[in-house]
Design goal:
The complex is a heterodimer of chains A (369) and B (188). Chain A has 369 residues and is α+β, with helices and mostly antiparallel strands. Chain A has 9 helices and 15 strands. In chain B, 75% of the residues lie in helices and 0% in strands. In chain B, helix 2 crosses helix 3, helix 3 crosses helix 5 and helix 5 packs across helix 8. Classes of the chains: A alpha+beta (369), B mainly alpha (188). At the A-B interface, helix 1 and helix 3 of A face helix 2, helix 3, helix 5 and helix 8 of B.
Chain lengths: 369, 188
């Protein structure tokens, strides 16, 4: 305890904080006690060192601050080539911030992308197919934005009806019998439009949702029946790799597409359909699939949702099956005579399309409001 | 004449640890020194080190009572930096006789000697303080460097009264002195 007091007194003495009498007394004490005198000298030296230390430390702090400020203001530039360090170390020093930023951006981007991918990718077994029919309200809206073409046409869709879906269909009998997909006809009635833009009223004769085949009959005075169809409907199956083509209405105009048979079975091994590699879009549903001889081998119906060029068609045998079944109960169906020979067998593709196009129709299904 | 007065004001600011004056001197001279160091095998860090050493030397010189600056601040700083850097290059064995350029320099050897001694003392004190450990380090820092009052320190460090803080400070000071003088006397 005494030592503390003594040291405190020495500090007060050295800092000049003593009253005059006290100071004289202390100086007297120093003279008489060499130990105290020595302590005073030692502590003085120490305090001096302490002072220097604190001054320098403060100055160094201020200098560092000034340096930092000037670098921030851009007066001092740090970032050039000359350095005693190795080139790689130098580059690292110079670009480490940039690298860090780039790396974090890359990391975030990767996370976002993988997040998006996993969000939009279904699990592997959950393959999905979409039906290739059109949602018409959307199409119509888009077309209204493009112009008024659709309004100018004197549509045979009843004024108070709303068109829901559209797809393609083709004649199986010149008297006006058409085949399309059942899923195209989501409504109470339908009109069909031929490749020249002419509209006809049609009656839905049968919808078989299981096989996804529907039969329509054109009932319109404007319709002139065709004596013989240019194509036939194939009863036997086709071979893998066989060249195929289709006509359909993914838009208001008829569209041609070609591809090949890629699998004898359809989605999930369905033997009533087959897989075709070709480009198809909503609206192609119900369209005919021809082989190179002009024989209809199937009805284009669905496509793999998350894969391009994977399209499924219902095999043409399904049409015969349905028609045969219906013949027993429905008199209207009994009249259907399906074409068995193709007259376009040895023609060029362009000529084939010209003849066939007249028999491929655009179907618009509507519901009465 | 005006420039001279300006320089006097700046130096006064440096002595008083005025950040504006220091920044001003820094701004006027740093790029020159950086260019010199970079052109002579140095790095950015070297430039910063050397320049700050020179600033400290200038500070010590300006602080001494017998101070008269016989040349411009720029010339003085350049001379010190040049001397310091060439010396450092020599130590690293990279010295290429750089004496061929005849820039305007002033003799600074004496100042540098003092500076080196101060630097050594600074290093000893820094080491001593460093090996003290907490709370001694902060306590002594607060009292001797930040020059805070004992009552303030007591409340800041959580001592119940100034006397207890004083007691602790005394113990710490004794340890520091021991550590410091052990090194210092070897240096002598």
């Amino acid at each position: 305890m005494e030592d503390i007091l003594l040291l405190e007194t020495i500090e007060r003495y050295l800092n000049g904080n003593m009253l005059p009498e006290e100071k004289t007394y202390f100086e007297q004490l120093r003279k008489n006690t060499p130990e105290i005198d020595q302590m005073v000298v030692e502590h003085k030296l120490f305090l001096q060192q302490m002072d220097h230390f604190s001054e320098q430390k403060n100055l160094r702090d201020t200098l560092n601050e000034a340096h930092h400020n000037l670098v921030e203001k851009g007066v001092v530039h740090e970032g050039g080539e000359i350095s005693t360090k190795g080139k790689v170390v130098q580059l690292w020093d110079r670009y480490k911030r940039v690298t860090a930023i780039a790396a974090s951006i890359a990391g975030i981007t990767a996370l976002v992308i993988s997040g998006l991918v996993s969000y939009y990718t279904p699990s592997a077994n959950n393959n999905q197919i979409t039906q290739l029919s059109h949602d018409l309200t959307q199409v119509k809206k888009a077309q209204q934005e493009l112009g008024q073409q659709l309004n100018e046409v004197d549509s045979k869709i009843p004024k108070d009806a709303e068109a829901i879906t559209s797809g393609s269909a083709f004649l199986i009998d010149g008297k006006g019998y058409l085949v399309t997909n059942a899923h195209v006809l989501k409504g109470s009635g339908a009109v069909v439009v031929n490749s020249k833009g002419q509209e006809f009223n049609a009656k839905i004769i049968n919808i078989d949702n299981i096989s996804d085949i529907a039969i329509l009959k054109i009932q319109d005075d404007d319709y002139k029946s065709v004596s013989s169809l240019p194509y036939s409907i194939k009863k036997s199956s086709v071979d893998l790799g066989e060249e195929l083509f289709t006509l359909g209405y993914p838009r208001e105009q008829i569209v041609y597409n070609m591809g090949y048979l890629s699998s004898a079975t359809g989605h999930n091994g369905d033997t009533s359909s087959c897989q075709i590699s070709l480009n198809a879009n909503p609206g192609n549903s119900g369209g005919p699939v021809f082989n190179k001889n002009g024989e209809i081998i199937g009805i284009l119906s669905t496509k793999e949702k998350y894969a391009e060029g994977v399209v499924f068609a219902i095999k043409s045998q399904g049409i015969y099956k349905l028609v045969d079944e219906l013949r027993e109960s429905d008199t209207a169906v009994q009249k259907i005579k399906m074409p068995v020979t193709s007259s376009i067998k040895n023609k060029t593709r362009v000529e084939q399309i010209k003849e066939v196009a007249d028999c491929v129709y655009l179907v618009k299904a509507y519901t009465q409001k | 004449m005006k420039a001279e007065i300006n320089e006097q004001i700046l130096l006064q600011g440096l002595v008083n640890n005025d950040s504006k004056a220091i920044e001003s001197i820094y701004k006027d001279n740093y790029n020159m020194i950086q260019a010199f160091i970079l052109n002579n095998n140095g790095s950015y860090d070297d430039a910063r080190d050397i320049f700050q050493e020179a600033m400290i030397t200038l500070y010590e010189k300006a602080k001494s009572e017998s101070f008269v600056l016989t040349c411009q601040i720029k010339t003085y700083i350049y001379s010190v930096c040049r001397r310091l850097w060439l010396k450092r290059l020599q130590q690293m064995g990279k010295y290429r006789s750089a004496g061929e350029n005849l820039e305007e320099t002033v003799p600074v050897e004496e100042d540098l000697e003092i500076h080196e001694k101060r630097n050594a003392e600074f290093a000893i004190m820094e080491r001593a303080m460093g090996s003290l450990g907490e709370p001694c380090k902060s306590l002594l820092d607060a009292y001797y460097i930040q020059k805070k009052g004992m009552t303030e320190i007591a409340s800041e460090f959580g001592y119940t009264n100034a006397d207890n803080a004083k007691n602790q400070k005394y113990k710490c000071l004794m340890r520091l002195k021991k550590l410091f003088f052990a090194q210092y006397n070897i240096g002598e």
